[in-house]
Amino acid sequence: MYSDKQTKLVEKSFKSYAHKVISLRVIISKQFEEISNCFFYFYAIMKHVLATRLNQLLQRRAQQGALRQPLQLGENASQYIDFASNDYLGLARDKKHIKTIAQHYEKLAQIGATGSRLLTGNHWLCEDLEREIAQFHKSENALLFNSGYDANIGWLPALSRKTDVILYDAAIHASLHDAMQMIHNTKLPFQHNNAQHLEVLLADLRLAQPEQIIFVLVESVYSMDGDIAPLKTISEICEKYNAILFVDEAHSHGIFGEKGEGLVQHLGLEKKVDLRLHTFGKAFGTHGAALLCSTLIKNYCLNYARSLIYTTALDIHTLVSIQQGYFFLEKGSFALVKDKLFSNVNYFKMQAQTLPYSLQINDSPIQFIAIGNNQKAKALSAHLLQNNIDIRPILAPTVNAGKEGLRICLHAYNSYVEIDLLITLIRNFI
Ligand SMILES: Cc1ncc(COP(=O)(O)O)c(C=O)c1O
User: Of 273, 293, 259, nearest to 130 (Cα)?
Assistant: First the structure.
């Protein structure tokens, strides 16, 4: 027990202690407030710095006339004459095709894959489809990816090592440039479609390093210019120098070959090409892609291709649409539609000779008119749009400065009258 005196002493010292604690708390909370204010201002400044940086870069694009803005044609989109989309065969809008897909899809009673391919996303349709695709394309095996972009940023970084070398056509697609950025090895471009230049580089590399693994990357039909690669010569050179040849068939799938098998099969080169990419967002009018490869490469990609492993697998409607795309090539009216497409290509080639622009005239559905600068390319595209023709300008930096222009996509469903109108409008544009 404390005496009264002791109790008073304890109370007094407690009061002064409590007072100190309270005043300390005030000081701390004030300082804390200042510190938290400080953080708040710091974050505000950071956000401001980021916003300034983004605005500056967008302004720079705008000054170059290269600001990208998705164009929306609205509900009347179908009234425009389509010379822009990659729907070469018209499957994306073919009512009968859409109905057949819907009938098959309905039976499956599932929307999404529900997981990645290595977890719950391995729907039986994926495996069936891969078997069918491999058989159709005379390939040892096939592996589905969610898109061509995913396939390219998946297989190349997975397969190549620091010590390997990649030789690529200077006009190769952006997805392969992105894939190459993910790998720390030597990458050398060769002049566009110049097989001799490829051979010179390969010969030098082989002399220096006889055992080096060399990948060669080309497209069969180049996505912007629409010109066709000298695949036979390239495959012979790759064979001569033991290089691994990859051919991106995004724009030849469903176009070349008796049944739309692609340029590699059209030329009988399937045994000479190590990897092929077929994408389904172009002539099939749907989405997704398949890498045609050996079983070893397929199993390896299933283990190491990150863009395949760490993503939800393709949805069921897309799988059915891809399957029906192949059905159309094999058993549908493909031959008739292809004839229509190529008669339009030939008609355009004839009529376009008179245009006062630098033209890249090709034996493929993609034609390119070089206009020479972003502003003029945009103005011509706007003029065509005003006249109900849908053609999109291709601007720098998507293409090199000076190569800006219009990419014209011909389709089976275009008519000669539409092509005449297009050419007249371009010719009369000043
Ligand atoms: C040559 C080429 N490769 C790959 C891709 C990417 O394919 P996807 O649209 O399926 O991602 C494209 C698409 O523009 C392409 O043109």
Answer: 293
